[in-house]
Design brief:
Layout (H helix, E strand, L loop, with lengths): L1 H13 L31 H4 L3 H15 L8 E4 L7 E4 L4 E5 L9 H18 L3 H9 L1 H18 L5 H10 L16 H15 L12 H9 L1 H22 L1
Parallel strand pairs: 1-3
Antiparallel strand pairs: 2-3
Helix pairs in contact: 3-4, 4-6, 4-7, 5-6, 6-8, 7-8, 7-9, 8-10
């Protein structure tokens, strides 16, 4: 009888919750290994909170196309299977592809705008026909430099800060030992960066007084290319002085 009484006590203890205030375990719909989490994501906090790459890329791409009144069809895709930090324009299909591996290097819309604007500049050139297609492949470095400068104009028209082009370039541009002939399809990063800086200094100098120039990547550009920057400024001053003498 005592054994039966003890057994009943044990069973009754196991049936009572350990803590009266304990929360019930959450229940999830769908498969047992799927958990849905509310992240409060919107397009303004995208870069900090989400990996929904397609929406952001397409949003910025459309802003650039509309602001620049681009009347050429330009499909934009994301290749989620490529981890390379790259984007390219297919001259045959007239499409732009951004590799997923590039997006972790992008910190804001302005930097993404440079990447997309650069590729759109290529795409517009490819619409020049077969002979233009051949020329672009034969002398790719010339058209890379051209696309950088056209991208700056596109960015400004769409309301983006062109200083981001220098910041993005300082992150990802290569600096090969040789950049002539067919050894490399792109100019050295230093050549591209100083060309963009010169273009901004002459055409959009107001952006060089914005908070974006405090970005660490821009500061690094100023440090590593201080002599080139000084030379560009001196050349500009000489040109301005010469023009002033002509106007007298």
């Amino acid at each position: 009888m005592k054994k039966l009484f003890k057994m009943l006590c044990v069973i009754s203890m196991l049936s009572v919750p350990v803590c009266a205030n304990a929360l019930p375990l959450p229940s999830f719909s769908g498969s047992s290994d799927t958990i849905y989490v509310e992240t409060n994501v919107n397009m303004n906090n995208f870069w900090e909170k989400t990996s929904k790459m397609h929406d952001k890329v397409m949003s910025v791409a459309q802003n650039i196309m509309i602001a620049n009144k681009i009347n050429k069809r330009t499909p934009v895709f994301i290749n989620r299977n490529q981890n390379a930090a790259n984007a390219y324009t297919d001259g045959y299909t007239r499409s732009i592809t951004v590799y997923a591996g590039l997006l972790p290097y992008i910190d804001n819309d302005d930097e993404l705008a440079y990447v997309l604007s650069h590729e759109m500049a290529h795409d517009i050139d490819f619409y020049g026909g077969y002979f233009k297609y051949v020329a672009m492949n034969f002398n790719s470095k010339k058209y890379e430099l051209k696309a950088d400068l056209v991208a700056i104009d596109m960015m400004v028209k769409a309301g983006y800060n062109p200083v981001a082009a220098i910041i993005m370039g300082n992150k990802i541009f290569a600096e090969p030992i040789l950049d002539w002939g067919f050894f490399y399809t792109h100019p050295k990063g230093t050549k591209r960066l100083i060309a963009m800086y010169k273009y901004i200094l002459i055409k959009y100098p107001q952006y060089l007084n914005t908070p974006m120039v405090q970005n660490p990547y821009y500061k690094n550009f100023e440090t590593t290319m201080s002599k080139d920057i000084k030379g560009v400024k001196q050349d500009l001053q000489k040109r301005q002085m010469k023009q002033e003498r002509v106007n007298l």
